[in-house]
Structure prediction request, 205 residues.
Amino acid sequence: MDYTQAQDEISSIVGLIAVEDKPALIGLLQSSGSLVTEMSTQDELLDATFKAIRDSNKFRNDLSKYLTETASNESDADYGNYVDGDFFNQSGTGKAKVKDALGSLFSKENIAKFGAIGIDALGSKLNNAANKGAGKQAIEYEKAKADSAAATAAATAAEIERLKAQKDLGGKKPMPKWVLPVSIGGGLLIIGTIVFFAMRKNKTV
Prediction:
């Protein structure tokens, strides 16, 4: 796994966390000094997240720890060392989906290594872009990746629920559990088109 692949996967995971484990992400951001709240929009949350990845060593370290502990299925109480546990009260099911996605992208043996590598590589990339006067465009680029992963996960989850409902009514067998995390990885294949239009829109503003 190279740096580019690792940082792309981090952007996708950020999109999933923002939807499925929003309280946790807000807790991480607030712990690093961000002013986001539960009322923040998806766009605001992603914007704050990628800026924190760029600017905050604490946030990068905390996010890396979150990924490692989530992938290892450790208890929420472990987060109390750096984030008020109240932020994680609503995490349960969402954290399970994040764990499944992480399992499709990283093995348990390399999540700590490549999670940290991906976060640091992404932070360096965003910082370099900012130094060249392209900070806003770089943030929008990563937000588009995150939005694509979140949308793919949401659509897949909705389809799983639909098939489960059919199963209850004697219809089709529901989609297997592995489809959700695999679809998130597969969603990276269509990011190029989404990013193109996002960047094109940004240039016209």
